[in-house]
Structure of Transcriptional regulator of 2-aminoethylphosphonate degradation operons:
Amino acid sequence: MTEKITTQAATIYHALATQIINGTLASGSKLLSERELSELFSTTRITLREALQRMEAEGSIYRESRRGWFVTPPRLVYNPFTNSLFHQMVESQGRKALTQVISTSTELASPELCLKLAVLPLSMLHCIRRLRSVDGRPVMFVEHYLKPEFFPDILKLDLTQSLTLIYRKHYDIHCGRATFDIYPTAAQASVANYLNLPEGSPLLMIIRVNYDQHGQILDCDREFWRHDAVRISMDSQTLHSDKVA
């Protein structure tokens, strides 16, 4: 029985994948409902979902809560070592970028952030939470944690702009080197809601610590990317001076 289900799921998988590859199912288009697909392939919902979940894991389709399944747009190519800004990076690939500020606050640093930013326990940090979209689709939720002594009154500024440019213009601070930790994680409810994902969906988390031109630690970013929205591409010879922010 298991072998039969697997074979049926593979047939559905290849049929849908072929239509995506040849453009019959266009980028961003909505698939038929699960009921309609089950009837089309004369199969059960269980078998159908086996095929859909495989495609979702590979990033060729995605689902949105209470809306259904969609064909995934092309992945954004993201090189953390280049000096492009987020909007510049997106637009250079023929896409449209949008940044929304979700919240701002000044709060106690967690033990993890104390280590990342080399600050004492019970230190206060500015926190900026933003949602970033490509072609109208939310693809990344980011938390920026800043040392307040470097950025007085920054929370009063227009934070839909690039933080990199704000640092330069208002504080004469230029971003230098950065360190990165990149690993998979699962979407907690708050992040999943902003990215239109079911809770527990796979995400790619990038934790970046940024330094200024004098080698001092400035901030720490925690980026939560939809796993199907980005492709990390790095060249060891790439010279960099700024972050994507």
Notes: The chain has two domains: 8-71, 76-232. The beta strands are 61-64, 68-71, 76-78, 97-108, 124-134, 137-146, 175-186, 202-212, 217-226, 230-232.
